[in-house]
Amino acid sequence: MAVPLRRMEVVEPAVLPVDVAPVRSAVDRDRFIRFQYDLYRNDPNFVPPLEMERRDFLDPTKNPFFRHAEVDLFLARRDGEIVGRIAAIHDRNYNAFWKSKTVAFGLFESIDDPAVARALLSTVESWGKERGLEHLLGPLNFSTNYDCGVLIDGFDRPAVFLMTYNPRYYPELLERAGLAKAKDLFAWDLLRTQEPPEKVIRIAEKIRKREGITVRKANLKDLPGEIAKLKKVYNQAWERNWGFVPMTDAEFDHMAKDMKSVVVPDFLLIAEVKGEPVAFSLTLPDMNQAFRQVEDGRLTKFGLPIGLAKLVYHQRKINWARLTALGIVEGYRRRGLDAILYLDTQRAVQRLGYKGGEIGWTLEDNHLVNRAIESMGGKHSKTYRVYEKSL
Fold first, then answer.
1. Strands 320-328 and 356-363: what pairing?
2. Same domain flag for 50 and 127
3. Low-confidence winner among 4-18, 40-54, 86-100, 150-164 (lowest mean pLDDT)
4. Among 161, 168, 314, 355, which is 20 to 30 Å from 330 by CA?
């Protein structure tokens, strides 16, 4: 007589809880910074930021953003192992400018686990509610004046300078945590071999002559004077763009100082009418091509400047650029200035021997700008998404 087999009960292994705690020590700050390098270690398209720059960025004594914002960093651990990180941001200037009650999240990194993402985002939500904030927005690192958004397509190559990169699973993590799309941001490719249509060139030159527009490259020998002009145009040009917050003088000066070593005069163009600046465009060499060669973002190894030597060597080989900003003051928009600056930038790219560059980001619903880029031969190459949630 056969003995019936007893049905075995399958017991699922217990899922250990996620513990999220604020960064309060120098050791945890180091862990917060280094987690990103560990998470992407086997991703060939990840470009490690310079560790030194990340330390300065998160240092309240060095980054003037902290003068008008409260920022807390958090680490998520499971069974003692770090599995995620996030920053909670209360930008008082943003909320005053938009008359809003927004808490932003940024510097978000997580393993592919919805429980970790939920724990991190819930921590920021609670942090925001404690401060009377009602709207969650992000990722912003720390505002739209810096890198922001989650990459949702275009994962097949590394990000360019000052643009974000993330694993494919991030959008799903954020959406499963209850966040929804707030705005998409577009990036565009424009190759040096893509000649602008004759019609565009003809119209741009006609406008240049008719409006008395002079486009010149920046004079880096008078950097303080040039910065003052750019600052004025910048804060006027983007004044009512979605997500914009004016830069303080300290922030603008700090960013200009950081970029001084990588700015190419031919790529910083200022458009003037009767000597008054009315627009500018800033294109930067894609420093990520050089950063990729610096192992783990460290400029020194074994006490030797190995990373620095690699950075200097590969910086000379950069052949791609990024048009980072193009702004026109009110009263001069819709008059063809954007086409003139795109055209002059394209000529500079060709003259300096670059293969081409990326334009971005632009707002998905900024149809005027997006059509202008398309008219120059630009191809939509990547999309980034900023998410939101009502608290």
1. parallel
2. yes
3. 4-18
4. 161
Question: Which two three-digit tokens encode residue 217?
Answer: 């490259």
Residues 65 and 170 in one domain: yes
Residue 170 domain boundaries: 19-185
Closest CA to 327 of 198, 221, 180, 229: 229
Residues 302-343 pLDDT 10s: 566 777 788 887 888 999 999 998 888 888 887 788 888 988
Phi-psi category of residue 216: left, alpha or beta, with phi > 0 → left and psi -120 to 50 → alpha: beta
User: Per-residue pLDDT averaged across 95-102, rounded?
Assistant: 96
pLDDT above 70 coverage of the chain, percent? 95
Beta-bridge mates of residue 181: 387
Please answer whether residues 351 and 277 qualify as being in contact, where contact means their C-beta atoms are separated by less than 8 angstroms. Answer: no
Length of the chain: 391
Q: Identify the helix (H) or strand (E) that includes residue 51.
A: helix 51-57
Alpha carbon of 319 to those of 191, 247, 322, 349, 357: distances in Å? 11, 30, 11, 9, 8
Look at residues 137, 163, 185 and tell me which one is the last residue of a structural domain. Answer: 185
Residue with tokens 């990722």: 139
Amino acid, res. 33 = I
